[in-house]
Amino acid sequence: MKRQASNRPKTLHALVTGGAGFIGSNLCAEVLARGWRVTAVDNFHLGRPEFIAPLRRNPRFKFIQADLLDLLRVKRLVRGCDVVFHMAANSDISRGARETHLDLSLGTLTTYNVLEAMRLGGIRDIVFASTSAVYGLARVKPTPEDYGPLRPISLYGASKLAAEGFITAFCHNFGLRAWIYRFANIVGHNGTHGALVDFIARLRRNPHRLRILGDGRQAKPYLHVSECVSGMIYGYEHARGEVNCFNLAPRGGATTVKHIARTIVRALGLMGVEFVFTGGEQGWRGDVPQVRLDARKLAGLGWRAALTSDEAVERAAHELAGQL
At a CB cut-off of 8 Å and minimum separation 6, what does 218 contact? Predict the structure, then answer.
């Protein structure tokens, strides 16, 4: 089937919210390499100045420290942009359970502000970083995008699902177009949280003993951040529906927490580390212990990850061991 020709300008101007964060900083670097103009905005909740320091030398890159809860500020930020990559969120799921306002304010409410600013400014395209956590304890595995009902068990997943609802409603009512990506666990350069980062930090403090939440058999698909960014851009360039929703996952498989621990130990050059498991199938309340994602929908457009889940973890472990 012949694809509809794109009427986008050759050089796009992207606004990247959460642009100094883990995925956002990698996304900024990639689209700059493709010749785009980028305005990155971040409040440094999880983002870090050092992640964007190398990008500041590029004349097509601009960084603004701002709070997306300020609607007037967001209205000014979206002016002149062709597309908004909305990456900002509280992606530290366990922290969201301790500070229950974080996911509502930094996830759902910021998404509304971005959408409202786009509506008022006449900006049509939004690419949204959602999560596989919206599926909750899915009974169908691998889980496809049309699985339902969606019943997330974390506040993070609930926030992302609410944001997806706002996005689809704005698209229907105000002519916006959306690309929604339900991520696997993303790992790699500039990582700020998650099992790999936590294990490295703990082993830096005590290289002889590693405390691991749960029984170590929790298993999820892990996608390297470079492939996450590649998949997002590919879908944006090739999917032409009003609302385009894709799982974004590795080439195959899932990786257990115990395998991640062993991989990190090897990457740090350690031996004889004692693993101490807290027990139970969940690492914490809100954790989905077993995740498998059906990624055939995006593959049908022509994009597939090159790395398996274990390969992505291996690559990320060495990157983070050298960075953290």
Answer: 256, 257, 281, 282, 283, 287, 289, 290
